[in-house]
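Format notes (please read before filing issues)

Several people have asked whether sequences and structure tokens are stored in separate files. They are not. Every record keeps both together, in the order shown below: the sequence lines, then the token lines. Line labels are part of the format and must not be stripped during preprocessing.
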Amino acid sequence: MTSSTSSTGAPARQPGPPRAAGPGAAAPAGPDAGYGYDIARTDPRAPGRLGPGTPAAARPRRRWLRWVLLIGSVLGILASLVVLYLVVIRPLGIGTALVALTAALVPVALVLGAVWWLDRYTPQPRLSLVSAFAWGAIGSVLLSLFFGTFFDAWISPQEETELIDSFLGATVQAPVIEETMKSAGLFALLIWGRRFISGPLDGVVYAALIAGGFAFTENILYFGNSFHQAQAAGTVDVFWQTFFLRGILSPFAHVSFTALCGLGLGIAAERRSLMLYFGLGLGGLSLGMALHALWNGSSFFLPVDPEAPLAGFLRYYVTVQVPIFLLLVGIVLFLRLREKRILRRQLSEYGRAGWFSPDEVEMLVSMRRRRRAEAWAGRHGAVARMGMHDLIRSAVSLGMERHSVLFGRPTARTRARERELLEQITADRRLIGALTAPVVRG
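Then the structure lines:
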């Protein structure tokens, strides 16, 4: 790849196939030295040849096990949906459930929009994102209802009043059980494959989806009950008050609680430390429980003015909850900027080895330039656009994978993954070059 990208955003086209080189090899002097970097490139035409490599050891394919897991997962989701309908939707009634569902779409749309913005820079597999949301909306809700009953009976004193029962349920039972069940989905993602959560922002994204799904189902239940109360009272004030508190003021409440556990697990996954998995994972889970208890318990201690029943809550909300939320937003924005710096640094290392030109690195770290590159490729057909999209995703995965490997000892699996991504980038580059080259040169 001796030419840089063109003004239209096209990727540089590679010449002939020489020997491949790793990002850390020494740089020779020559006419290609410099090339826009602070040191010379190791191999000016590195993408042209990867070599035969070392064949990976063949593993026995257990397709039947994969099909069993897939069928079992689908049946489990269907069974959970049936139980959720019988436990939550049917008691409300179809009409009330539709009203509650429509109202619950507002806060969940805000959450999904925020998750989309966070995830689009280093996108995760869509199937895993959908699975995380499904776990939050179905699995964690059903498990919370099941275990919450036993836990509430266990922590309740023998002689309790209705006020004590409500207080323990709001400040102890709900934070402990709900946060544990939501975080179980994060631990399952780590067990299923560490590639799903490889850094702090990944943990926050999956935690936000799980919490958003949980809040979506919970909001249907709350909005449905408040709608029933509004019908009984002959006024809609109760319903709109509930919608204002849960749908407008606190759509990110559950997200904030669970994101702390996701943040801790993401830091541990990036460092590849088993001790940090337990320490930061349980620490984030405990802190999320504490914030959940603070949010639920505040209603028991705030003064209530009959003429302005929301005034006390709004003062508490502005002075306590808003600063906490802004702090968490600041952490998330820092993580987003951090990922951009990581990607630039790691891809520049590959660029010094000859895999990317400086203009290509700038394109890969900028969302605006990515869109321009895909639009340029799209003018040459849908296949070229798909190749550009796949090249960008593979390059992003390459940079983030290398950053994660730097914290641990490289293994045969990580080297195979690096080679797989480099081969995919080379194949995409050749595809784009073949589709965008003029048939007859001028």
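For reference, the curators noted about this record: The longest helix spans residues 311-352. The two ends are 22 Å apart (CA to CA).
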